[in-house]
Amino acid sequence: MTRKLTQRGRDRRLQILREAARLFSERGYHPTSVADIVASLKVGKGVFYWYFPSKEELFVELLRGAHQDLRRRQQAAIGDEPDPVRRIELGIRASMAWFHEHRSSFNLVQFAATEERFAPVVRHNREVAIADAVRHIKDGIVEGRIADQDPGVLAEAVVGVTERLAQAYLLERDEPVDQVADAAVAFCLRGLMG
């Protein structure tokens, strides 16, 4: 059931989401209970269940929200850039900046990938990311700027390289975001353009 919320209700719901994301990121999904979330906010469990039917549903919403936020960042960076290769570069750079700024969200997505119950959300988010990349790659193929290969395979490579480098160098080693983005762009564009 979807409730129509007042501004105060929307603010409270957002507060619960933010606090849950913080606790999940610090402690992990399994060790964090609904009781921990509401105790941290100094509210009763009823407040939590007014906005979310379960901890699992709240976590799914965090995953969806993180992906939507990442896509907004990519779309804002790409804007109305006509060059498909430049759009891919801008998308990679925007992704790296987002991963760097939203480490906790990126960690939650990495955890969700290991849990079967969250697999449909992770899979859907990945399919959307691949479809976004495919669109730019197809435009580049049509223009003769990108090698004429399977756009889906190329998109998987771009998304995979970007995510893996973000995890290894931004999250695990805390390397400068511009250097990691430069490496990802150079590798991906060389691979796409031959």
Structure characterization notes:
Helix 1 packs across helix 2, helix 1 packs across helix 6 (103-112) and helix 5 (84-101) packs parallel to helix 8. The protein is built from 9 helices and no strands. The termini are far apart. With 194 residues, it is mainly alpha-helical.
In short:
This protein is mainly alpha-helical. The protein folds into two domains: 1-53, Homeodomain-like (Arc Repressor Mutant, subunit A), CATH 1.10.10; 56-193, Tetracycline Repressor, domain 2 (Orthogonal Bundle), CATH 1.10.357.10. It has helices spanning 7-27, 34-41, 45-51, 55-78, 84-101, 103-112, 119-142, 151-171, 177-193.
Any key phrases for this structure?
single chain; mainly alpha; Tetracycline Repressor, domain 2
Topology:
Elements: H1 7-27, H2 34-41, H3 45-51, H4 55-78, H5 84-101, H6 103-112, H7 119-142, H8 151-171, H9 177-193
First CA to last CA: what distance? Answer: 51 Å
Total DSSP helices: 9
The residue-averaged pLDDT reads: 94
Number of strands: 0
Q: Which range does the strand content fall in?
A: under 5%
Strand count, sense and barrel status of the largest sheet are: none
CATH topology of the largest domain: Tetracycline Repressor, domain 2
The Rg value, from CA coordinates, equals 19 Å
Secondary-structure-based class equals mainly alpha
Q: What is the CATH homology-level superfamily of the largest domain? A: Tetracycline Repressor, domain 2
Low-confidence stretches: none
